[in-house]
Amino acid sequence: MRQLRYRDALREAMIEEMERDDRVFLIGEEVGHYQGAYKVSQGLLERFGERRVVDAPIAEAGFAGLAVGAAMVGLRPIVEFMTWNFSLPAFDQIVNNAAKIHQMSAGQFRIPVVFRGPNASARQVAAQHSHAVEAFYCNVPGLYVVYPSTPRDAKGLLKTAIRDDNPVLFLEGETLYGIQGDVPEVGQEELIPFGSANVVREGRHVTVVSFGRPVPMLVKLADQLEQEGISMELIDARSLRPLDTATIVASVKKTNRCVVVHEHWPYGGPGAEIVDRIQREAFDYLDAPVLRASNLDVPMPYALNLENEVIVTPERVRAAVRQVLYLD
Amino acid sequence: MSKVLDELQTMYRTMYLIRRSEEEAARAYSQGKVGGFLHLYIGQEAIAVGAEAAIEKTDYVITTYRDHGVALARGSSPRAVMAELFGKDTGLVRGLGGSMHLFDAEHRMLGGHAIVGGHLPLAAGVAFRARYMKESFVTLCFLGDGATNIGGFHEGLSLAGLWKLPVVFICENNRYSMGTPLSRTTPLADLTVKAAGYGLAADRFEGNDVIVVRDRIKLAVERARSGGGATLVEVLTYRFRGHSMSDPGKYRSAEELEEYKRKADPCALARNQLVASGIAEEQIAALEREVEAQVADSIQFADESAPAARSSIDAFAYASGSSV
Fold first, then answer.
1. Domain count, chain B
2. DSSP per-residue letters across B120-158
3. Averaged in consecutive runs of 10 residues, what is the pLDDT profile of chain B (324 residues)?
4. Which of A108, A146, A158 should we substitute to test contact with B (largest number of B Cβ atoms within 10 Å)?
5. Is the residue at B76 inside a domain?
6. Which domains does chain A have, with CATH numbers?
């Protein structure tokens, strides 16, 4: 397979879907003439013109709501948030309109909108630019929430998101944009369905479940633990709502131990949801309580040494793994 | 009968239908047959009906939680509207939305929306489609005076102005945002000055005469349809009931209410216009009897319909399928 960067994979997905369907358009701040704050939309304006690559003013509630309204009457917008932190002024549009109109109208109006952008910390951008939003949005029925960690998943999930008739929240990672990975050749179309987790690495002693940005870090950690005699199975949930409970539970039934790793804050959220599903469906298979390794429970600090401590670290994951194995 | 008179009679009929439906809905609410919130349109009928007369069936309308009048004016079935208030499976949205969320795709009614100001960006988005697909439909967006201070209002107008979207924002100024008079929520006496900040055209008038409403809204609709962009229209009106059924309206005097009812009842005004135009009293009474029967039928239909279906709980949270 060819190698592609995560941001280029996202761009390819948008190009293919925009070429396939004239109703698909991209709207957001700096997506056109500026070529995208993180260059995900680079070249799209030249390719599709101002009709379909729409630079919006700084008005998230306005253009997120505009997308929902356009979707009610048959268009299929992709909304780029410069970061998911900026979705918060549009929270009402996402939660009260995008998520609920299909149900409130008894299915008369569909909301095929993709909201996408980088989630969580972009490194040293301080508290207001570093929030991991999945815990808010996964709580809302009517939304799908996905968070790819590889270029291949980024492309395959984004294509699925654009074709889906429901509002999809598509979380990316600023520090994932530059990573390279295998992506199927052009012409070999791949649509990755929602609700399907990926067993990144098979192992025997412990299951680690994660999603989004921590996943590449966990691949390295699995290598290190292997050398220490610990065989770690790594599952990338990829899709948080719907969540592939079956794959996670099957793994835990095999390893009997589990650590859930996430970047969102520890109070609730999909991390806690995964733990709950495991205790309900694999209770008799567990040899230790399921532990979580996450960001520390404080707003994100600016200084690099402090931020490195607050974002979930490999050391904290390692400690949790050793704890469920009763090694310490 | 002349075409003009025929149209006035049709408008009066719809206004009277709204008036009587609302009165019966209030009665049903007091009998415990309607739950939750019930925001009545009584006193404001000329606006929904006049605006409807200014547009085509192929145009779109979106409104607030005070939405029964707009739905009926668009042509939604009185039975389905009443059944929705009653929480029945035969309701317009199968008992999932209730009074505040009347959606009717067939009649291009894009809903009652219950977060103040949150639907203005949606209206801009509907109008965006017309621009994107080079279509000629216009979008009407009703809002209350209480919406003019919240962010959604400003961002919706901002985008509509920027892209010259074919949308008409109709602010029904009934002088109170819930229980607070306008004088305590804004320093402005004229809300349309806000239009200038976003490059919108503006219009402002008393909205109790249905013909005036129709003709003035038509100007804004024609501007939108001909590429002249969006308009903010402020229509002065008065609601004769509380904000919702739970509001006894103690923030305004009985004298003020009686004064408006006497001078500015849009239904009475339209009826008087019919009489003045030479329509026989008996003809008007016959039309009213017809409406009474229709309203009674809608109540009976709602009463006798099956409750909302258990299966609806799961059926609509997500749309099935995709565009694949």
1. 1
2. HHHHHHHHHHHHHHT----EEEEEEGGGGGSHHHHHHHH
3. 89 98 97 96 97 98 98 98 98 98 98 98 98 98 97 98 98 92 93 98 97 98 98 95 88 91 94 96 97 98 98 94 46
4. A108
5. no
6. 2-183 (3.40.50.970), 198-324 (3.40.50.920)
